[in-house]
Amino acid sequence: MTPYWDCDFFSFFLLFFRRVFSLFSEGPFASDEIQLIVLSAVALSCGLLSPFLVLKRMTMLANSLSHTILLGIALSALAARYFWGGQWFDVPTLLMGALFAALLTALCTEMLTRCFRLHEDASIGLVFTVLFALGIIIVTLYLRDVHLGIEAIMGNVDALQLSDAYLPALFMATNGLIVFLFFKQFQLMSFDVHLAKTFGMKVGLFRYVFLFLIAATCIGAFRAVGVILVLTFLTGPYLIARLFSCRLGRLLIWTPLIGVGASFLGVALSRHLLNVHGWSLSTGGLVSTVIGFMYIGAKSFVRIRKKYIAREVRPLG
User: Fold this and answer.
1) Dihedral sign, Cα of residue 114, residue 118, residue 120, residue 124
2) How many CB atoms lie within 10 A of CB 268?
3) 9-23+30-309 — its CATH code?
4) d(C-alpha 30, C-alpha 20), whole Å
5) Rounded to an integer, what distance in angstroms lies between the CA atom of residue 37 and that of residue 160?
C-alpha cells in the first residue's frame, strides 16, 4: 500500500519531503514518487529544448511526430511479422520503428525547407499528412488484426514503473550537456541564421542535431507520459516563463523548473482528489490542466501589474 493513501494536498508534500530527507528509508519508491521522478525527467528534458523550438516556430513538429510515428510502428510490426516471425514484436521494437519515423519526419521537414524554400510550418504540415497517411494505409492493408501497442505512444502516467524513467533521464542528461556545450550556436540559430552563417557556423549541422534531439526526446517521453503531456511540456512552461523574462539563459532555467513544479502540483492534486473525494482522475490530464491554469494566472497577474504600474506613473493634471 502506498504511504500517501491518507494524504490530502498539503500533507502529500509534507510526507514527500520527510521521505526525501530520510532518503526513503521508510520503504521503496511509492507509485506517486515514481510518477514525480518520470514527470520531472520529462519536464526537464523537454524544457531544455522548448525555448529554441518555440523561438524557431517549430512547435508543431512535436505534434506531427505524434502522428507520423504510426508509420514507423506499422513498419516495425510488419517487419517483425514477415521477417522475424513476430519474435521481436515487442515494445522496444516498436519504439525503434517510432524513432526511425521521427527522424524521417525531421529530415524530410528540413529538406523541404532547405531545398524547396518552404516555410517550416508548411513543410511540417506536408510531411505530417503524407507520412501519417502512409501509416494508416499500411495498418489498414496489412495489420488490421495486430495490436500495435498503443501504449508506446499514448503512455499511462498512472501505471508508471521505475524503468520508465530511464529514457527520459538519459535524454535529460544528453539535452543538458549539448545545450551547455553549444548554447551560443543554438542561440544564434534561433534568432539570426544569417548572422550565424556570417560567423562561419555550420547551421545545417546544428539544425540536424537539434531535430535529432527533438525527435529522440519526444519518442522517449511518448512511451512514458503520452503525446498530450509531451506537447504541454514543450509549450506551456516556456510560455509561462516568457511572461517574466526575455533572456534566453534565464528561460532555459525557469522553463524546466516550471514543468517540474507543475508535475508536483498535478501528482499532489491527483492524490488529493482520490483520497478526499474518491475521484480517480488521470494524473497526466491533471498536470496538463495545472499548466494551463498556471499560464492563465501568470498572464492575468502580468496584465494587472501593468495596469497598476501605468496608473501609478500617470502624470497629474
Assistant:
1) negative
2) 23
3) 1.10.3470.10
4) 12
5) 10
CB of 153 within 8 A of CB of 90?
no
Show the cell assigned to 132.
Answer: 501519417
Q: Match 520503428 to its residue by C-alpha cell.
A: 97
User: In this structure, is the dihedral angle defined by the CA atoms of residues 175, 49, 169 and 97, taken in order, positive or negative?
Assistant: negative
Question: Could you tell me the three cell numbers for 278?
Answer: 474518491
Q: In angstroms, rounded to a whole number, what is the distance separating the alpha carbons of residues 170 and 14?
A: 29
* pTM as predicted: 0.87
Nearest residue to 48 via CA among 238, 287, 227, 276: 238
Q: How far apart (Å, rounded) are the C-alpha atoms in residues 126 and 176? A: 31
C-alpha cell at 127: 510531411
What are 16-39's pLDDT values in tens digits?
A: 998 888 876 667 888 899 999 999
Cα 98 vs. chain centroid, distance in angstroms? 16
Average pLDDT value for the chain: 86
Q: Are 159 and 148 in contact (CB under 8 A)?
A: no
CA angle 15, 18, 22 (to 5 degrees): 140
